[in-house]
Structures are given as C-alpha cells and as structure tokens.
Amino acid sequence: MPRLPPVLKLLQASVKSTVVPKAHISAKIAKAPTSATEQAMGIVVIFVGLLVPAGWVLSHLESYKKSSTA
Question: Is the model's pTM score more than 0.85?
C-alpha cells in the first residue's frame, strides 16, 4: 500500500465509520405533571427571551446603519 500524505490520512480517518454503542436511555412518566400555569409561564419566558432582544435590534436598526456608514 502506498504511503499517504498527512492531509489524505486525515481525510481517510474522517470517512471511516466507527460503531458507537447504543445508549441505555429509558423515558419515564413525570412524577409531578406540569400544570397549565407552569406551561404558560415557560412559553412566555421563552418568547420574551427571544422576541425582546430581536425587537430591540430591529428598533435600533436605523442607528446601526448610520453608524456603520459614517
């Protein structure tokens, strides 16, 4: 077998398939079900965490445009 350059050895190593053992994961029912209030609060927190920063950036978009062209 011809000797491969180091770069080709790296590429060849990424193509080889390795067998990964199966994880032993079992799903169980929650001990205390989540109430409707807790679910609603979780959804509100997620949306506020995503939408408030996006809204702030969009509301300041003009000032970003002005400062980048100056």
Answer: no
Cα dist from 65 to 41, 54, 68, whole Å: 36, 16, 5
Decide if 3 contacts 12 (C-beta within 8 A): no
Cα–Cα distance between 3 and 9 in angstroms, integer? Answer: 9
Tokens of 26: 């079992």
For residue range 3-60, list pLDDT tens digits in order: 767 777 777 766 667 777 888 887 888 788 899 999 999 999 999 999 999 999 999 9
Which residue matches tokens 């995503």? 50
